[in-house]
């Protein structure tokens, strides 16, 4: 009999996971810790709840668990007046780590003043966090961070349910509904913030939450937005990158002296006007543009871009961004970054049409990956042996039916409270600043919503907050946006005739 008990005991011990080796695949479990951070000179105490909340199918069966971290200020009793910000990054397939550990959260990773990695890796307090004015939840869609679908779903079922513009918006809206209910935040003013692909995500969510969950927002913040489904066409698509080329050439001191001696924000309006008023019509004429005019346009593009007239003419006035990243500093033996063109790279050979790699992204992964793995385990006390997906497997991504700009416009039209703010870095070549302005122009052709839209520019790239000066400024802009979009008590959400 004793041998039987010993055998059972050994089986139990073998089955139990060793400490630090838990796979932790639970789709519905959290852990809560406490912390304090000094923001703008004021100590702010908070709780941090991290773990997974399920996604259910239409029959109530759990099909995924989304990893999230929820920061809630501890000394606020009136949740009805306390804003809640729901934060997404992009990719698609990217974790929420970027804005979580470098922008709005109470801790930020250890980097230098311009955003480059330094050792030892780690995190520090964020004196610019917006936790003083709003609670924040960082959400990781399926196959990002520690978020996973259940193993019983086939790849085809995962694709159909999670991996596409419309699919992504639908299941995330349901997840938000559950989160808001669980944490008793229905009375709170609510905001969505999304970066990069997170911008079509939150734009689509604004309407899905209204129409399918009857949840109305106060604001949507678009950080480094994509085209939001707005078609450019050949001429606009080619021309609109010129202001970004100018900004990057100015940073690298490649412009003629008459431009280089001026400040960046003094130059750019001139280039923007030329782009819309002259360059778009010229490119639209294609091969029927008279040769004399073509030479003049090439000279003007060269003046504003730092490239030679020769290569501009060789490309028929349409300079691909990948070529620009390779060409601008080719004579110095460097390439420049796609998402932040302040960053330099080195290629196997100087010849070629595009860089070998993205120096800014490799730099960011260098600093963010150790920081988030350390932070989740040691600060948030979440233990798992799952791999943290900085970028997870979500492809192929179904991009059909991307009407997210129109979704956001419609949500604003239906909800007089709803306001939109865009934040862009001048040196971002992936989601460039001028196209983010163009989005706003085209999103509301009537002009009736323009007073509820705002745009902010920063002297950095895609993740403008990595530059310490812009981290402070951009967070302050969010504070101002929250104040401007939080109505006075008893202020009705209605349109009035003048």
From TrEMBL:
<dbReference type="GO" id="GO:0004185">
    <property type="term" value="F:serine-type carboxypeptidase activity"/>
</dbReference>
<keyword id="KW-0121">Carboxypeptidase</keyword>
<dbReference type="InterPro" id="IPR029058">
    <property type="entry name" value="AB_hydrolase_fold"/>
</dbReference>
<dbReference type="InterPro" id="IPR001563">
    <property type="entry name" value="Peptidase_S10"/>
</dbReference>
<keyword id="KW-0645">Protease</keyword>
<dbReference type="GO" id="GO:0006508">
    <property type="term" value="P:proteolysis"/>
</dbReference>
<keyword id="KW-0732">Signal</keyword>
<feature type="signal peptide">
    <location>
        <begin position="1"/>
        <end position="20"/>
    </location>
</feature>
<protein>
    <submittedName>
        <fullName>Carboxypeptidase</fullName>
    </submittedName>
</protein>
<dbReference type="Pfam" id="PF00450">
    <property type="entry name" value="Peptidase_S10"/>
</dbReference>
<keyword id="KW-0378">Hydrolase</keyword>
């Amino acid at each position: 009999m004793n041998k039987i008990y010993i055998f059972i005991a050994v089986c139990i011990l073998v089955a139990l996971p060793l400490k630090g080796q838990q796979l932790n695949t639970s789709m519905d479990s959290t852990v809560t810790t406490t912390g304090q951070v000094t923001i703008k000179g004021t100590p702010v105490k908070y709780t941090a709840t991290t773990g997974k909340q399920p996604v259910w199918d239409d029959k109530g069966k759990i099909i995924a668990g989304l990893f999230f971290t929820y920061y809630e200020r501890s000394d606020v009793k009136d949740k009805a007046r306390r804003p809640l910000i729901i934060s997404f990054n992009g990719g698609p397939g990217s974790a929420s780590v970027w804005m979580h550990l470098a922008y709005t959260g109470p801790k930020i990773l250890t980097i230098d003043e311009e955003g480059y990695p330094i050792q030892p890796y780690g995190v520090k307090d964020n004196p610019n966090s917006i936790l003083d004015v709003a609670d924040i939840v960082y959400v990781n869609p399926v196959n990002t961070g520690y978020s996973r679908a259940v193993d019983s779903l086939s790849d085809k079922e995962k694709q159909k349910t999670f991996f596409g513009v419309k699919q992504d918006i639908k299941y995330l809206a349901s997840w938000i509904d559950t989160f808001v209910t669980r944490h008793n935040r229905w009375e709170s003013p609510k905001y969505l913030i999304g970066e990069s692909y997170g911008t079509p995500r939150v734009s689509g969510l604004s309407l899905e939450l209204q129409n399918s969950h009857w949840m109305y927002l106060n604001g949507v913040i678009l950080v480094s937005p994509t085209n939001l489904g707005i078609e450019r066409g050949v001429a606009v698509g080619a021309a609109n990158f010129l202001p970004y080329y100018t900004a990057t050439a100015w940073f690298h001191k490649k412009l003629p002296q008459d431009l280089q001696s001026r400040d960046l924000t003094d130059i750019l309006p001139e280039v923007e006007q030329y782009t819309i008023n002259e360059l778009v019509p010229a490119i639209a004429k294609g091969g029927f543009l008279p040769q004399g005019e073509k030479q003049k346009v090439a000279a003007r593009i060269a003046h504003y871009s730092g490239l030679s007239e020769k290569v501009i003419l060789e490309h028929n006035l349409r300079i691909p961004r990948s070529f620009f990243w390779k060409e601008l500093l080719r004579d110095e033996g460097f390439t420049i970054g796609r998402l932040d063109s302040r960053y330099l790279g080195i290629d196997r050979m100087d010849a070629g049409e595009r860089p070998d790699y993205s120096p800014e992204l490799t730099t960011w992964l260098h600093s963010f990956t150790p920081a988030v793995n350390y932070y989740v385990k040691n600060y948030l006390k979440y233990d798992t042996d799952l791999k943290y997906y900085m970028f997870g497997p979500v492809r192929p991504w179904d991009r059909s039916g991307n009407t997210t700009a129109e979704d956001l416009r419609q949500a604003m039209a239906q909800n007089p409270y709803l306001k939109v703010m865009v934040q862009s870095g001048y040196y971002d070549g992936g989601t460039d600043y001028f196209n983010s302005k163009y989005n706003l122009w085209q999103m509301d052709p009537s002009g009736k919503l323009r007073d509820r839209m705002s745009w902010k520019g920063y002297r950095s790239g895609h993740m403008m907050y990595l530059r310490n000066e812009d981290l402070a400024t951009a967070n302050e802009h969010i504070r101002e946006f929250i104040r401007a979009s939080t109505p006075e008590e008893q202020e009705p959400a209605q349109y009035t005739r003048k």
